[in-house]
Structure formats: C-alpha cells, structure tokens
Write a structure and sequence with these properties.
- It is a single chain.
- This protein has 168 residues and is of the alpha+beta class.
- A seven-stranded mixed β-sheet has the order 1-2-3-4-5-7-6, with helices on both faces.
- A hairpin with an 8-residue loop joins β2 and β3.
- The longest helix has 16 residues.
- The two termini are 32 Å apart.
- The chain is built from four helices and seven strands; from the N terminus they run βαββαβαβαββ.
- Bound molecules: coenzyme A.
- Coenzyme A binds next to β4, α3 and α4.
C-alpha cells in the first residue's frame, strides 16, 4: 500500500467519495468538518495517499475537553484533585474502506498522540479520550492501550503516561 501525507483539512479536497462503513463518520467529513474548523470546535486532519493526493484515505479530529475527576479510572483518580480534569478529545477517527486493514488507522492514532503530546507542552492534558461509535471501534482503541472509563464502556481514555516516553 502507498505512503500518506497527513495534513490539516483544506477546502480543495473532495470528501464526497469517503466511505468508511459508518454513515455518521462519512457525513461528518463531507458536510460538517469545515464548519467545525471555522467555528473553532475541532481541528481536522486528513491522510492523503502520496500517489493520489486529492483523495481522503482517512481522517481524525482533535478538540479540547474536560472530564469530571470522579469519572476517571481508579488508578488515575487517586492521583488527581477532585475538580474537572483537562483532556484532549479524539472526536472522530475513520479510514476509507479501500484503505482499511493496512495500518492507516494505527498511523492516524499515532499521529494524533504526537500532536496532542506537542500541544500539551503549552496546554496541559491528563490524557486522550475517545467516544467509540460501536464495540468494534472500542476494541480497536483497547488494542492500543485505551481503557474504558468506569460506567461508560464506549468512552475510553489513554492516560498521558501511556504516550511514548520521548514525547514527554
Ligand atoms: C476502526 C478503523 C479506524 C481501523 O482502521 P484500520 O486502518 O483498518 O486499522 P489498522 O489496519 O491500522 O489496524 C491497526 C491494528 O488494529 C487492529 N484492529 C483493527 N480494527 C480492530 C478492531 N475492530 N478490534 C481490535 N483490533 C482492531 C488491527 O488488527 C491492527 O493490529 P496490529 O497493529 O497488531 O496489526 C477503521 O476500520 C474504520 O474507520 N472503521 C469504521 C469507522 C470507525 O469505526 N471508526 C472508529 C470510530 S470511533
């Protein structure tokens, strides 16, 4: 499979052909992503195949968020104060069907972690959270070390300490 360039979503890309198998995630990149960027609600990053740079092979979004300290897994909650905890939110992550199962999902997730680790040098976060759309998506995130938040099986957290050490 080809290599990719990951860059911020611009206006010139045709998202109409994007199909990941989840209609909401397809609709988002086609219709809503640009508005969210303009309104400062999300940053959207797309993976473009080097050999076909007008095509979106995958994307993810990042936003700032906070979670209640009491909603965190025990181990983390014990170490933190009781007021809301700042986190980064991986709002959406999807790979076009034509590119699935060739490693792009893990590339996008790693890139999101690198971006969050960089941002956290100037805006502190205790981890990266994601709301999985279904059990298959939750399994994908658990595969990379995300842990379910107590009582919210579809909301998962990757604690800051699980980020690669050289990013600290
Ligand atoms: C889930 C998704 C992002 C995975 O992307 P992908 O490019 O197919 O995944 P990769 O090829 O990078 O797989 C990376 C690893 O995750 C594993 N994996 C992939 N899907 C998995 C799943 N559902 N459960 C457990 N592990 C999974 C792969 O086996 C692979 O393991 P390895 O690193 O040990 O080889 C993609 O299938 C997708 O976009 N699905 C539809 C949309 C969706 O559900 N998005 C998540 C919404 S929150």
């Amino acid at each position: 499979m080809t290599g990719y360039r990951i860059r911020a979503l611009g206006d010139t890309l045709a998202a109409a052909d994007f199909h990941c198998g989840n209609g909401q995630l397809d609709d988002y990149i086609r219709r809503y992503a640009s508005q969210d960027i303009k309104r400062g609600l999300a940053r959207v990053f797309v993976a473009l195949p080097v050999g076909d740079p007008g095509r979106i092979a995958g994307y993810f979004t990042l936003s700032a968020a906070s979670v209640s300290a009491t909603s965190l897994p025990d181990e983390l909650r014990r170490k933190l104060p009781r007021y809301p905890v700042p986190v980064a939110l991986l709002g959406r992550l999807a790979v076009d069907k034509a590119f699935q199962a060739h490693g792009l999902g893990s590339i996008l997730l790693a890139d999101a972690c690198i971006k969050v680790a960089g941002a956290s040098r100037v805006l502190a976060v205790a981890g990266l959270i994601v709301d999985a759309k279904d059990e298959a998506a939750a399994a994908f995130y658990r595969h990379f070390g995300f842990v379910a938040m107590p009582g919210q099986e579809m909301r998962l957290l990757l604690p800051r300490k699980a980020f690669p050490a050289d990013l600290e």
